[in-house]
Design brief:
The complex is a heterodimer of chains A (about 250) and B (about 260). By secondary structure, chain A is an all-alpha fold. Chain A has helices at about 5-25, 35-45, 50-85, 85-100, 110-115, 120-145, 145-155, 160-200, 205-215, 215-245, 245-250. Classes of the chains: A mainly alpha (about 250), B mainly alpha (about 260). The interface between A and B is large, with 57 and 57 residues.
Chain lengths: ~250, ~260
């Protein structure tokens, strides 16, 4: 068997082992608070075809996608601008360093007051939290560009825009992609968090709060498990996409 | 060089001052109720929290009763997660079989948004500080755990074999080879989880608590005390900045030997 085959098999045994052990421990009655593992898994399977949950998931997904798209649309151009102008970047850096430590969740109560529209509130918080990895990775990516390649193009008479498109962007692209992947994970966390703190009409966070209000901890855990799996899949897909798109970089 | 960096520092301070002045000007001109001028926020923060007696380093009683539970939860939760993450991570990282068995579980654990634990834990257990600390621990352990596993798994084979040739005992190998070699990654994980712990602390206080900065933030928002809301946000930003800077100070001390060793290598 190949090495990766062994790893997959061992991983599967690890997951199955933990689930069975937890189920047995719960059935033996050592922990009475928690719902059974089998119950949670059955609920999770049911939720994947449950209309109410799918509606909630669609709403969360919409604010996630909108927030992430706006983050990319705003974060990358600003990052490119700052990365291309080191003096401006040095001047703006203290502002970035003052804004970044503010926990994005702390802004939710203020955002509740400022934004009347649920989607605007959610997107705004997602953008604030997920713009940092995109912005900072873009700036770093541009700093990392090979100066020889840049100067070569310049000495052949290419203008700054051509240098940006032909050298800087391709060279910075893998950094930017990593930033976007990190932002996608952060955006999932914040999409759910803003629903948990601010409430609203729909969304996975609201679904969990409702399930909690009805004492359905099995549904709460099942919805959380599905959210975790979604996050895992998004990350795996983006890692795979990075490998495929930037294969030339790994080959170097 | 020193003069230049000093000049750079001066420019930065001037820029921050100019930004605050601009913020003041714009908020005064716009006079939006939700965006008070920074001077209003600062004076509100001063009367609320920093006008106390000298004996309390100018902190008011209000500031102390608010900060103590928050900082306590944050530091206890982060400390417990750090110890557990490092110990488990080193053990898992040194065993290929164990890391293979646990890898999917750890990847999944990391992918679950930590804030979702808060309502679940509050539904399962009693609302209160122990439950809040439990959510912080389970929410922030992942960066430490994953980095410790990675650090312990990538110890230089030559170092290990040299140690064995010289007859070092197992505890000696762990203490002198494995831990120092994993240290840079562990420290990076600790820093990530410290900033995550601040976030988890705020969320656990926003969702269910009757003390702390997060609780204060919610009550201020519910009572439309806008300068108080801004004050809490600024306070949390300062707290995050201070936590990160103090961690960097300690990190530089701990890892000084490491950067020196790398210069010689």
């Amino acid at each position: 068997m190949t090495i990766s085959g062994t790893r997959v098999l061992r991983g599967a045994i690890g997951v199955a082992g933990l689930l069975v052990a937890a189920e047995l421990a719960l059935r033996a009655g050592h922990v009475t608070l928690l719902p059974l593992v089998s119950t949670v898994l059955a609920r999770a399977a049911e939720l994947t075809v449950d209309g109410e949950f799918l509606g909630a998931a669609a709403s969360t997904l919409a604010s996630w996608a909108l927030g992430l798209a706006l983050t990319v649309a705003v974060g990358i151009p600003i990052g490119l601008l700052l990365g291309a102008m080191p003096r401006v970047e040095a001047a703006v850096r203290p502002l970035i360093e003052f804004l970044r430590p503010i926990p994005s969740v702390a802004l939710i109560p203020l955002a509740i007051l400022v934004f009347a529209e649920q989607l605007h509130l959610r997107a705004a918080i997602i953008i604030y939290a997920s713009c940092w990895p995109v912005l900072i990775n873009t700036i770093y990516g541009l700093k990392d560009v090979d100066p020889v390649a840049r100067e070569t193009l310049r000495s052949f008479g290419f203008g700054p825009l051509a240098v940006l498109v032909r050298v800087s962007l391709p060279s910075a692209a893998p950094f930017i992609a990593t930033g976007v992947r990190m932002a996608a994970s952060v955006a999932i966390v914040l999409a759910v968090t803003v629903e948990l703190v601010a409430g609203g009409t729909d969304g996975v966070g609201v679904y969990i709060l409702k399930a909690g209000g009805g004492g359905r901890t099995d549904l709460m855990i099942a919805a959380t498990v599905l959210t975790g799996l979604f996050g895992l899949l998004v990350n795996l897909a983006l890692v795979a996409a990075e490998r495929k798109v930037f294969r030339w970089r790994h080959a170097r | 060089m020193a003069a230049r960096s000093l000049g750079g520092f001066g420019v930065r301070v001037a820029l921050v001052a100019a930004t605050v002045a601009l913020w003041e000007l714009v908020t005064r001109l716009a006079s939006q109720p939700y965006f008070p001028p920074p001077s209003t926020i600062a004076s509100r923060m001063y009367t609320l929290w920093f006008s106390g007696p000298v004996t309390h380093v100018f902190f008011t009683d209000d500031a102390l009763t608010m900060l103590q539970p928050s900082l306590g939860r944050l530091l206890v939760g982060w400390g417990a997660a750090s110890v557990a993450g490092v110990v488990l991570g080193l053990a898992i990282g040194r065993s290929q079989v164990l890391s293979d068995f646990l890898d999917p579980l750890i990847q999944f654990g990391r992918a679950v948004p930590p804030p979702m634990l808060v309502p679940i834990f509050f539904a399962l257990f009693k609302i209160g500080t122990p439950t809040q600390i439990a959510t912080i621990v389970l929410g922030v352990i992942w960066p430490v755990l994953i980095n410790a596993i990675d650090g312990a798994a990538t110890v230089d084979r030559q170092h290990l074999e040299t140690a064995r040739v010289f007859g070092l005992s197992r505890p000696q190998i762990i203490g002198r080879i494995i831990v120092p070699s994993a240290m840079p990654k562990i420290v990076a994980g600790l820093r990530l989880s410290l900033s995550l712990a601040l976030i988890m602390m705020v969320i656990s206080e926003l969702v269910g608590s009757n003390s702390g900065i997060g609780y204060r933030l919610t009550t201020a928002q519910q009572n439309f005390l806008i300068p108080d809301v801004w004050g809490c946000i600024v306070l949390l930003g300062v707290l995050g900045y201070l936590l990160n800077s103090s961690f960097l100070l300690v990190e530089n001390r701990i890892l000084r030997w490491h950067s020196r060793a790398r210069q010689y290598a």
